[in-house]
Amino acid sequence: MKKYLILFAIAFMGLSLIDADACTGISLRAQDGSNVVARTVEWAATPMQCGYVVSPRGHVHQSYTPSGDNGLKYKGVYGYIGIYTEYEPFVVEGVNEAGLSAGLFFFPQYGEYAAYDAKNNDKTLCDMQFVSWVLSQFSTIDQLKDAISEIDLVTLNHKIGAVHWRIAEPDGRMVVLEVVAGVPHFYENPLGVLTNAPGFQWHMTNLNNYINLQPGSAADNTIKPGITLQPLGHGSGMLGLPGDFTSPSRFVRATFFQTTAPVWATGFDTVVQAFHILNNFDIPIGSQHVRADIPKGLPSATQFTAATDQQAMKFYYRTAWNSNIRCISLNDIDFHKVKYQSHPLDEVQTQPVEIVKIK
Questions:
Q1: What integer is the mean pLDDT of 243-266?
Q2: 303, exposed or middle or buried, with CB in 10 Å at 0-12, 13-18, 19+?
Q3: Cα-to-chain-centroid distance, residue 124
Q4: 356, part of any domain
Q5: Has residue 320 got a pLDDT over 90?
Q6: Contact 258, 28 (CB under 8 A)
Q7: CATH number of the structural domain spanning residue 191
C-alpha cells in the first residue's frame, strides 16, 4: 500500500507541476429528450494507462486513506461503467444503471477538504474514489446531497490539490460539488459546462465579460463617412473568444460552442455533435511544455474523451491513440450477474487507419 501511494503521489505531482489539469465538460439535449454529458480528460506529463471497469451490484468497495486501505467500506447498490486513470480504483468518469452520471475534474488551489482524522476511518472516502461511491450508491442528486454528511472526504496527498465533481441526472439536472474549507457546496448547473479552477460561481460571473460574443458574422460598421469596416470572413461574431488552454478560457469557449450548437433529433446525433465540439479542446502535445520537456509517445495531452447518452444508456469514448469512437451499452449488461472486471481503453496504443482502395 505504501508503494502504491508513493507511485500515485509522484504521478500526480508531475501532473500539477506542468499544469495539465485541463478537463472540459459540456452537456447537450436532443429533440427526443435525450441528455448527453461529455468531457475530455487531460494529462500532459506521460502516456496514461487508462481503462474501464464494469462494477456489478453488490460489489464491495474499499476506500483508501492516507494511512492505508482502511477507509469506508460499502457494497454497490447499482452497477456502473466507469473509466479510470492509471489506478483501477480511481474512476474519473462514469454512468450507472439508473442513468446517473458523475465525473471528477481537478480543482487545484481553490478546493480544500477537512483534515484527515484516523479515528473516522470507517467513514473516510478518498476523493479519487468519490465517483465510484456516487455511481454505486445513488440514483438521484438529492440522495447524494442527503448522504454527503455521512462521509469524510480526504486526499491522499495534499500536494496533489483538490478536485470537484459534476453529477447529472438523465432528465438534465446537473450539479457541481465543491469542497471549500472542509465544507461541501452543491451548485445547480443549468448551463452544463464545467472546467477546473477557480470555482464554478466565478466562472459563471466571468461569462459576463463576453456578452458581445455571438454566432455568425458581425454587421458592417461605418466609423466615418466613406469608411466602413467589414468582416474579413465568416464567424466574426466570435472575435474575442479566448483560445488558450487555461480553465477560464476553456469555460467560455465551451459555453459558446455548446449554446450555439444545433439541437439534433436523437441522442446518437447529439453524441456525435458533442465529440465534434470537444475536438476544439484537444490539446496538442508540446503546447504545454518547453521543448526539452516534451514527453515521448504521447500524441495529445487529451488522453481520452467520453460522452454518455443517459437515456439510451450508452457510454462512448475515444482516446489520444485511437480517435475512433467506441461504445459500451449498459443495456447489454446484467449488473446482477456480471463479474467485476476491468479492461484497457486501448489494447494497442496505435491509431487504426482505414485503407481506401481505388478500383
A1: 97
A2: buried
A3: 23
A4: no
A5: yes
A6: yes
A7: 3.60.60.10
